[in-house]
């Protein structure tokens, strides 16, 4: 059974690498060493949105706007120009760097302007090839390491760190005094609450304007959301939940106090959560709906406020 599982995993890795190695059709027309590519821009997309050239070629981009003024900014090559509606503008550069580069509209053309992006692929894509090799190497190494390990790997995180390992922070007097203080974690909650109030006011005042000019949208979806996914939840963990400002008003109404010991009797209805909803389906459906409208939330300040 173990040998069959190993063979199956190797086949899956091989098929994945083979599918990723399929030849890619080059874009535009090549005359000599100059490749000319025509791109049509309209709200909120480029056509084509993926262009492919060979490394070393001289590339000429002919940009045509079909509705409003659009821009073209190419990351990595730092090339930028714009085209008014109904006109054609031309920009050239030398494709001397291999890899995949993003080009985006550099002129605000409407609400969904941030999603108007495309990709330039300069072949051979050496960073992509290197990434595939490392993924395959990691997969094979993981299979080999799993087969050679002995014991119950479920008792350890990544097979290395014991799950019952603990580090007692309260052994340090300063940290112990902070944890015992009535002002902890209220002070941190209050700071976060003030920051979120500023963000809410900025989002509300932004209304239906373009989100890339709004402080609230940039703070929530560019800074806070990234920090939440990369640092707050995976590294800080429950500490972030402890200082989160969202439950502040609810806790105040429930306990009657923010710092001292509150009332023992709840003002709520003391109803238990329905048994049929005690599963992951409600959370899954909320996540599905919020993800479906995610693009709308990130470009409308008033949607971010709500």
- Give the overall silhouette: extended
State the share of residues found in helices, binned by percent: 40-55%
Task: Spell out the helices and strands N to C.
Answer: HEEEEEEEEEEHEEHHHHHHHH
Describe the largest sheet.
5 strands, mixed
User: How many domains?
Assistant: 2
Summarize model confidence as the mean pLDDT.
Answer: 80
Are there runs of 5+ residues with pLDDT below 50, and where? none
Radius of gyration: 27 Å
What is the number of helical segments per DSSP (H or I, 4+ residues)? 10
What structural class should be given to the helix and strand makeup? alpha+beta
Share of β-strand residues: 15-25%
Number of strands: 12
Q: How far from one another are the termini?
A: 53 Å
What would a concise description of this structure say?
This protein has 306 residues and is α+β, with helices and mostly antiparallel strands.
């Amino acid at each position: 059974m173990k040998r069959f599982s190993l063979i199956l995993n190797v086949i899956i890795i091989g098929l994945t690498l083979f599918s990723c190695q399929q030849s890619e059709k080059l874009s535009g027309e090549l005359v000599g060493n100059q490749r000319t590519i025509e791109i049509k821009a309209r709200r909120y997309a480029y056509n084509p949105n993926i262009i492919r050239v060979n490394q070393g070629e001289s590339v000429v981009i002919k940009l045509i706007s079909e509705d409003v003024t659009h821009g073209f900014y190419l990351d990595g090559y730092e090339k930028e120009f714009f085209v008014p509606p109904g006109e054609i503008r031309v920009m050239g550069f030398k494709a001397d760097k291999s890899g995949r580069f993003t080009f985006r509209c550099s002129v605000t053309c409407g609400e969904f302007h941030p999603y108007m992006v495309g990709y330039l692929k300069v072949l051979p894509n050496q960073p992509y090839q290197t990434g595939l090799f490392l993924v395959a190497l990691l997969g094979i190494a993981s299979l080999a390491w799993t087969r050679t390990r002995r014991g119950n790997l479920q008792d350890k995180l990544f097979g290395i760190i014991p799950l019952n390992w603990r580090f007692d922070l309260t052994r340090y007097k300063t940290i112990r005094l902070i944890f015992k203080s009535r002002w902890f974690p209220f002070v941190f909650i209050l700071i976060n609450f003030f920051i979120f109030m500023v963000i809410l006011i900025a989002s509300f005042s932004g209304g239906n304007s373009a989100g890339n000019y709004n402080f609230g949208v940039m703070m929530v979806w560019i800074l806070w959301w990234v920090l939440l996914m990369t640092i707050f939840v995976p590294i800080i963990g429950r500490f972030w939940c402890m200082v989160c400002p969202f439950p502040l008003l609810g806790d105040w109404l429930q306990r009657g106090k923010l710092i001292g010991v509150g009332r023992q009797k709840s003002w709520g209805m003391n109803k238990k959560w329905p048994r049929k909803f005690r599963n992951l389906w409600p959370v899954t459906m909320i996540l599905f709906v919020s993800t479906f409208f995610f693009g709308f939330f990130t470009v409308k300040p008033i949607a971010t406020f709500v």
